[in-house]
Amino acid sequence: MSRVKQSLLKFHTSESGAIAPIFGLMMLVITVAVGMSVDTARGSRVSSMAASALDAAALAGAKALRLSNPTDAELTALVLEYFNTNFQQNAANALVQGVTVTPNREDNSVQLVANVRVPTTIMAITGTNYLDLTLNAEAVFDVKDVEVSMMLDVSGSMAGSKIEDLKLAAADLIEILLPADVPHSNKVAIAPFSTAVNAGDLAATISNGTDSRGRSLPGRYTSCVTERRGTNAFTDASPVTDKLNRRSASCPAAEIQPLTNDLDALDDAIASLSASGMTAGHLGIAWASYLLSPQWASVFPSESTPVDYDNTDFRKVAILMTDGMFNNYYENPNGTSVTQARALCDSMKANGVTIYTVGFQVPADVVPTLQYCATSPAHYYPAEDGAALRLTFKDIAKRLNGLRLSS
Hints:
2 domains, Rossmann fold, 11 helices, alpha/beta, six-stranded mixed beta sheet, four-stranded antiparallel beta sheet, about 40% helix, 12 strands, single chain, Nuclear Transport Factor 2, Chain: A
């Protein structure tokens, strides 16, 4: 032990200077390493900010290219304005070296390349004074028109602020899809549902006027339609050949609204929504399908006739919105409301209909059915409050409007 103490004492009192240079060199290496990590992290943050701004600029450019056909110079000026507004160079301590704008007028797309330089701090010690970033974005405005049917839950659980939130959300979607100053052939249909569906004057021609025993139905059953059974229970077959049934006297006050781009008619349909009754969700899904189906063309007004499924100039889309479990059905051989809902979603998908589903404050056991019906996981939206519901409908409308990032 005495030898160890003597050795430590010699080390402590050594004035040879061998340790200090090594320690200093180690500190320099550590400082540079920490500085590089700080500079790299800042570069990553600036890259994220610039990429977001570039995406916004690309979307604005693609929209302008589709709607106003600007010259290349006008388009470049517009894109730069959007990019500079959304990317605060001073705050990011970055220098934009240039933004290249390449329009494709055939498919209404815009490609952008931005070169951004980020000054370094500690890395400058190593001779690296800048981090040079190259960012890319591309957006396209698809010119296809859309036919959209909205299944809207107006059951009793939607009473109060929830029905008002739904009205605002539906109005937002219509405002985006049917802009008054843009030429288009977009159309929207609305299918309110609760205990049954109110088919209005159509009920007399599309459904049976007798009950399951062939007895005439009372007058109160006039417009409340329910599901049909048999071969066409889950298809969009024409009601001329296979009628629906009327098993309920309770249906929403709001009637179905066939496809239209008449803003006044749609506004009236939304204003008429009120909450009451149970949740026969499969009936709402069925009507979301019927309102888009060319098989039903003969029963709708001529201006509401759906295009054929194979019309490549159009997309057919159903939006299925509910706030609760599907708990009401009528034809026992068809299965529960959930079973029927899934079968009807399968039928729509087979016809090429894209399905978005929206769960508005739904219980956990409702989510699997909504996820099953959605075209993909990205087509299912949970909404926990009214603000989220409005954002959801706006996002769906923007996706349907054809404006999207393509890379």
